[in-house]
Amino acid sequence: MADKKTVFITGGAGFIGLHVVPMLLEQDYKVRIFDNMFRGDRDKVAALAATGDVELIDQDVRYGGAVHQAMKGASHVIHLAAVSINKSQSDPYESMDINMIGNHNVFAAAADHGVERLVFASSASVYGDPEKLPMHEDDTLSPLTPYCISKRAGEDLLGYYQRRANLSWIALRFFNVYGPGQKTTAYYTSVINHFVNRLRNGEAPVIDGKGEQSMDFIHVHDIARSVVLALTSEKANVPVNVGTGIDTSIADLARILIDAVGSDVEPIFNPRDVLVSRRAADIQRAKDVLGFESTIAVRDGMTDLIRNGG
């Protein structure tokens, strides 16, 4: 079929990308994955490529010429490639290189090629420590790490190319993504893994403070749905929160995981002063702009993850 539209997806071989690509194929797009394969899953990409509608370009977003060349003929762009939040603090130079320069290379090429829509994976971390819940897209932004700063700057760069070249974009501010296939390096996934490993050894999870810190855990399947919806939404040129709107405390998470593992232990609370941060998305704009609502409840998603081995 010559009339299939092509989606160019950076980081398409990563955790979120590998959930997005099959949904794009279901929507009858051709897919061009652009990924340096540093953390990408070659076996999964090879299986997708066997469909005939997926190709892999093994390259790095830091090279603007490579990005520009590879994007030729694409009608839509999804930019997921980034260095993680933890890595950005241990190596700010690489973080700036990949996240800032990479953002700009992808956005500039998309503007040059006149793509129909660019979807950018931003992050709820652009808010910093929120002053109130739920966190709304128009709240003050206070990004705290090089990663978060690069996500906010990415949104600003999109605004620049919208004004300069009429680029149509949506920045999705992902909250705490979890699900099958996730690497275990993110802070909150390491919390999940720590709890689960102890539970599987018959030990109780240990929680610092009272376990009041909370996150808005959103399943990667829902994240992928939001990305695909953002490609064709009528409204554009805005940041959009992607979360459940529910803040799940660490104490609640421990109890969900205890139930999922089928253990009868009680969490151990380690009394110490903990900076209590809470997270919950205002989800109204996602409904209005994307027609999106999350479908997988935290208890269901976490239980499924534990019972099916993640």
From TrEMBL:
Keywords: Membrane, Transmembrane, Transmembrane helix. The keyword rRNA-binding does not apply. Residues 7-243 form the NAD-dependent epimerase/dehydratase domain. The chain crosses the membrane at residues 6-25. Signal peptide: none annotated. It comes from the Bacteria. Belongs to the NAD(P)-dependent epimerase/dehydratase family. PANTHER family: DTDP-D-GLUCOSE 4,6-DEHYDRATASE-RELATED (PTHR43000). This is UDP-glucose 4-epimerase. It comes from Cellulomonas biazotea.
